[in-house]
Amino acid sequence: MHIFDFLIQTLMLPFLNFSYHSIFPNYGIAIILLTLFVKLIFYPLTNKQFKAMKLNQEMQPKLKELQEKYKKQPEVLQKKMFEFWKEQGINPLDGCLPMVVQLPFFIAIFLTMQSPSFHTLISTPGINPGFLPFWLPNLGLADKTFILPIIIGISTWWSQKSMTMDPMQARIFMFMPILMVVISWKMPSGVLLYWATSTIISTIQQMWIMKRH
pTM for this structure? Predict the structure, then answer.
């Protein structure tokens, strides 16, 4: 079975259905609970990710020193950087691995919101198809108020603001919040609810870990 079909049929749909009928009759609440469940599963990895980001920030002066010293010797520079990371107990992959691992879950929830099975669930007579009494009447449709895309953009901006970046990185990432808003503009609101909740949780977690360490 395809990994996304597996996640949809064995996790996403059963969890949403269980949450609606056994916890609270609202698919918006079900998506928020699903997000919390996924974040809880990946907490150790995410914790490791933000710790690695913090360490990398602290080591930037030394890395810049190496880059300046060996700027005309790229092979030596690469070797010295790996040696430095090893001495400090830093794995360069720790910063991106958790995001890569969680990506299939995001794609799976996106496919779930567009799947015939989910539309059958929310089309059942007597079922609340959205995040009512809030502003989302149907989780399979886009957020016409654009509240969720804006929340995603603001959360992305705030997450970047709490990170220490060199001027070049800052220039590259300054457009990221706008890009996130554009990408999410017409996505199903159920996907955006998952994305916004996940982004807010990650931002809070990032701020807490950065402050703690």
Answer: 0.79
Counting beta carbons within 10 angstroms of the beta carbon of residue 151, is it exposed (0 to 12), middle (13 to 18) or buried (19 or more)? buried
CB-based contacts of 39-42 (< 8 A; 24+ apart in sequence): 39/198, 39/201, 39/202, 39/205, 42/98, 42/101, 42/102
Q: Give the N- to C-terminal CA distance of the chain in Å, as an integer.
A: 42
Domain ranges of the chain: 3-212
pLDDT in tens, 95-154: 666 677 778 888 888 888 888 888 888 888 888 888 877 889 988 889 999 999 999 999
Burial 4-16 (b: 16+ CB within 10 A, else e): beebbbebbbebb
- The predicted-structure confidence for 19-73, as pLDDT tens digits, reads as follows 999 999 999 999 999 999 988 888 887 777 777 777 777 777 777 887 788 777 8
Assess contact for 63 and 164: CB atoms under 8 A: no
